[in-house]
Amino acid sequence: MIRIAGLTKKYHETVALHDLHLEIGAGEIFGLLGPNGAGKTTTVRLLTTLARPTSGEASINGYSVVRHPEAVKRQIGVVPQHINLDQDLTARENLELHGRLHRIPRGERSVRIRELLAFVDLEDRADEPVGRFSAGMKRRLMIARALMHRPRVLFLDEPTVGLDPQVRRRIWDLIREMNRNGTTILLTTHYIEEAEMLCHRVGILDRGRLIALGTPRELKRRVGEYVVENIAGGETQYRLFTGREEAIRYAAGLSGTVTIRETNLEDVFVELTGRRVTE
Length: 279
Ligand SMILES: Nc1ncnc2c1ncn2[C@@H]1O[C@H](COP(=O)(O)OP(=O)(O)OP(=O)(O)O)[C@@H](O)[C@H]1O
Ligand SMILES: [Mg+2]
Fold this sequence. Notes:
Elements: E1 2-11, E2 14-24, E3 29-33, H1 40-47, E4 55-60, E5 63-64, H2 69-75, E6 76-79, H3 91-101, H4 106-119, H5 135-147, E7 153-157, H6 165-180, E8 184-189, H7 192-198, E9 201-206, E10 209-214, H8 216-223, E11 226-232, E12 235-241, H9 244-252, E13 257-262, H10 265-273
Parallel strand pairs: 3-8, 3-9, 6-7, 7-8
Antiparallel strand pairs: 1-2, 1-4, 4-5, 9-10, 11-12, 11-13
This protein binds adenosine-5'-triphosphate and magnesium ion.
Adenosine-5'-triphosphate binds next to strand 2 and helix 1.
């Protein structure tokens, strides 16, 4: 559904994205994970035709983002990182406007608006100006808006940033439900938990480069499935092990506060880069 070959974006001296190669199949939930400035938004902007690549190519459902941006736009829905709703309009009016832009006929438009307001649980607030909404409600409305024209592929750039845990889970449920209905999903996140809980496959971006790719399970296996954490003298040391027995044996020889736990994607990132995803 998404094919990316050698995609590169430079802003003057900054290489925001370097030679990305990636294929994402129909029906996948794919997560691009990486710290601030890794190139996540750049990737989304290139794939959604909002920015032009410096070099390389990408296509969505067979349509080139460079040569056929209009066709690409019909295939995709986009939930950008920053809220870009019209705050003076109501929820319904925001959807109405988007439906018109996409030339959805009036009858279908009103059916679709009703369905989507129910889907994101905003029926009761449909006729209030969006300016009064909470961050979670705005995010849900942006998801509804992106789905108006029934896209094959949905891009969500940091869909749950700044939201409280309950709202995040609600958004995850919405994403899973859209996916069950056949939508291919590419999301970006710097939340390790989000990538682990939600994504079939994850690509880890660091400073514009894809440094790892696979299912969360595969990535954890690659670096070792067990971590021994040792807090001694105010400093935490980590060591990764393939086998549990091995980890236990190592831990037995340590003094200080020792914990053995399963590896997570944060550990994968630290192992590959020597840094953490989140500060
Ligand atoms: N329009 C632009 N002009 C100049 N530099 C840019 C522009 N957009 C992005 N960059 C640079 O490209 C790099 C990647 O930025 P990008 O926004 O893609 O990162 P990100 O992974 O989305 O980060 P965040 O988690 O903060 O959203 C950064 O160094 C950024 O400063
Ligand atoms: Mg970003």
